[in-house]
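We modelled the chain as a single entity of 108 amino acids. Its sequence is:
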Amino acid sequence: MMSWKDQLERELSDVHFSQNEKMQLSADLKSAADSVHLKRSFSDKLRVFWHGSTEIPIPAAGLGLCLVGLGVWVLYSSILGVDQSAAYALLQVGSESIRSISQGVSVI
């Protein structure tokens, strides 16, 4: 079975451009790209950016996620802090209420 690359190379083997044609095509593409960028309004540029794709290298993405995680940790780490005296008081109140409920219940 022929690979995609081999098949594409075989199909495009008859396509050849001279050096002048390559330079002319390059100039045409550059001028077309420049004219498109000059004529676009801000909303068009924003739409193209929003619907486009951006490749971010894995190390940069990993560093960004670590920074976001560190920021979230710093912001919400105080929630995980437990005041031991308050926890002890809550446990004492809970155990005393259970004792009073069990003492007040009578079986008929």
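As a brief sanity check on the tokenised model: The chain has five helices and no strands. The chain has a mean pLDDT of 82.
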